[in-house]
Description:
Layout: E1 2-4, E2 10-12, E3 28-29, H1 33-41, E4 46-53, H2 56-66, E5 74-82, E6 85-96, E7 101-108, E8 114-122, H3 133-136, H4 161-181, E9 206-210, E10 213-224, E11 227-235, H5 238-259, H6 267-274, E12 280-281, H7 284-299, H8 309-314, H9 327-334, E13 342-345, E14 350-353, H10 363-380, E15 385-390, E16 394-397, H11 403-406, E17 420-424, E18 435-439, E19 444-449, E20 454-457, E21 460-467, E22 472-475, E23 478-484, H12 487-499, H13 502-507, H14 509-512, E24 516-522, E25 528-533
Antiparallel strand pairs: 1-2, 2-25, 3-8, 4-5, 5-6, 6-7, 7-8, 9-10, 10-11, 11-15, 12-14, 13-14, 15-16, 16-19, 17-18, 19-23, 20-21, 21-22, 23-24, 24-25
Helix pairs in contact: 5-10, 10-12
Amino acid sequence: MVTTHSKRAAWLTASAVMAASAVPAAGEVYLSEAQALAMVLGERAVVRKEQKTLDETLRTKLERSSNLRFPESSYTFFIAAQAGRAEKYAIQVNEIGKTEPITFMVGMSPEGKVTEVVIMIFRENRGWEVKEKRFLNQFRGKTLRNSIRVDEDIINYTGATLSSKAVARGVKRALFLFDAFYPGEARYKLAPASQFALPLPISPVLTSADSQGSLDLYRQSRYAMGSICEIRLWCRSADEAHRAFATGFAEIGRIERVFSAYRDDSELALVNGNAGSRPVQVSEEFFDLARYAGRSWRQYAGSVDVTVGPLMRAWGFRECEPRMPSRTELLEAQGLVGNNKVSLDGRMRTVRFLRQGMHLDFGGLAKGHAAKRVARVLQKQGITAALVNLGGSSLCASEVVSAATVQNRCNETGLAFGEWPIGIIHPGDATQCPVHLLLKPGWSLSTSGTSERQFEASGQILSHILDPRTGWPISGIRSATAVARSGRRSEVLSKHLLLLSAREQTATANQLKNFDWAYLEGAQNGAVALEVNSIHTPPLHRFQPATVNSSLPRPCARICGQAS
């Protein structure tokens, strides 16, 4: 059902268009078993899989000693061996959140300490924040003897209490099971080498061919830059894909060490800690992005501002505990915001804050920059075509390296190699994709949105997206997607479009005609107001869900403040 709401937008019911990439009934899959094992045990680990049966006697003993439930009849352990010793253990756990199970993997050392926790599948509508590393890292080093209580030993995420408690219970259960099945010295002993196996080679998710021979689609996800990052590759072989994944994720890690606002050892941390008292010399890459941020701030009248850090702290977004700041706190924070208070010296390549207490946070701008950089690195490595997807909100398609390949199409999808179908989710319903578009080689896409986390303050329902011009979070359920040649430009455009009021959109209508964008706004009845401006990326409404690959990526803004 489609009805006209105004001259500017059409209203679609939530069920009008359903993308193949919508969240399935099974939940949001962040990591496959193989991907989780690579993160927990290591990509090159020699791994053995062991099935352990839980009889009634042991079940009763565990439940009495732990005050936890152990409903499964068997559990699967994964053991990584190195230099003739059991190096690490891992177990996959399911734990009920509010109403649905959360699937995650817990890594443990032979000494019984938690080494890693990663979320694999999340099935609830809310509470997804538990997949964030800032939450999961709190479990590292915990043992069976430690208390693991949310709000006491583990800092809770506001709005994700039930999910936080579920993960905490699951980690505790994993420790009890490990101790029960591998007591004492038994956990150090290895079974015969023949019972272990090297990791299986990575397998393509889609097989095809072009005029030059076989061409397969590979996919790998890892956690970086505060979110799940995925790279998809059209490659000639599994070895080529493995080398490309290593290169691509290494580049993401390098950029994170430059721009992360959550690492004490990042270049950004050095600037934030010292630029208030003296000029800080920075890398060429840092200076270039800081200069671009300043230009964007001036061009878009302050709607995009990387100095928003003090406001994020005032509203509690930095700690993911939103609160209403006092008028004094808000005024003090606003006094520290504005790119005109950042001094850049191009000759000396230095950054200086003109006021003490300022704080840069590049947020999505760093992700857009990273997505484009990784795509270029993979292109230079000779990868036929790649899609870099950082957190579902910053995407970039590499140029196709072979002119002959551009003329070929994948048999299963009917799309040219290097073209990527994208579904943009309904801002209020993650199971719906009202818009499909095609991301062409060499183009970047960014999405900003308010749908994931909201809170109430002074009788208003507010989002975690701040408008630097007012100092207040914006309200409503909406998202904005922009497509551009530059990853950092698409980030700026999507954030600018999201913050524009209806009156501002009308006033800047001519400017908005110059780039590709989609603006979605949720309504109380579940409908969505949709407006699309398409120049280079026509919406793919002609594609039916069944004809689009089921692993279609979804640009989905899932941001707490501007986590980098």
